[in-house]
Amino acid sequence: MKMAPASKGDNKKAAVDAACWMFNIVTSVGVIIVNKALMSTYGFSFATTLTGLHFATTYLMTAVLTRLGYIQPSHLPLRELLKFIIFANFSIVGMNVSLMWNSVGFYQVAKLTMIPVSCILEVIFDKMQYSRDTKLSIALVLLGVGVCTVTDVSVNTKGFIAAVVAVWSTALQQYYVHFLQRKYSLGSFNLLSHTAPAQAGTLVVVGPFLDYWMTSKRIDKYSCSVVSVIFIILSCSIAVGTNLSQFICIARFTAVSFQVVGHMKTILVLILGFIFFGKDDLNLHVVLGMIIAVVGMIWYGNASSKPGGKERKSHSLPTSRTQKHDLSESSENDEKV
């Protein structure tokens, strides 16, 4: 029995999905490489402040697009915005503090736990069910990334607490992106136009103090050069794409899928770090881990797309026809912009 050929609609969706993933991977890896050069070569070690500048640049982009009419006005209740900002800022600060207080190995282990935590959130709030193959593919991805990134693992009490805060706040922030877009029929640009200015304002104000606490360096004492300013501008420009693509990918898929496929960025960062920075840690052990992780990602994509691979028992956010139309319209607007 011959299988029916894929419809044009399915082919278009697959092409757009692939483009969204590539957009996120390229911009995420790009901003990491630029930041790495900025911090290691030019001594700009103010990570939290730099993140605030990223969101300020993102806000300028959404403001210009809104003014030009590409982003339509939308509404997000203040209480929902405040919840999102709390999750998002705790995620950023928590990750930075976790890296400062923990060994690199334990920091990587903590990052790996975001996938099971995101699964827990989806099971609790979205009544999501995963097939055996989907669970096993996630485990294979975790194993592969763990093999190629986890080295020395040492932990202390305050480092463990920072890691827990970082993992849960990041998982909640990513889940909340999907939740808010479904509940309030917001496109990715709309949601960014609400959240970016609030994040920029809080991080630009708090960032210099937090960076001083972490590095004992004051940002007002930093000696800027033309090249370092160019790198900062480049970092902010690429980060606009990173912030936008994250919202688009989570909206089109889920936080768990975003985390699983997102580990491709970890692998690419390792490869590009070896190419551009000449590090000698791309050995057989690391390459084996990369292969395992990539096999797991391919398996996850295949397993989760099959019937019963990953599905909701019941919709926790029932939507009317009008809401569904709005969601479809928001997605189309994202693609057009």
Automatic annotation (TrEMBL):
A Pfam family per the record: TPT
The name this protein goes by in its record: Sugar phosphate transporter domain-containing protein
Membrane topology: Multi-pass membrane protein
Keyword Chloroplast: no
Organism: Stephania yunnanensis
Keyword flag Membrane: yes
TM stretches of this protein: 21-38, 44-69, 81-99, 136-153, 159-177, 189-210, 222-244, 256-278, 284-303
Location of the protein in the cell: Membrane
Sugar phosphate transporter domain location: 26-300
Keywords: Membrane, Transmembrane, Transmembrane helix
Composition bias, Basic and acidic residues: 323-337
Region (Disordered): 305-337
GO CC term (a single one): membrane
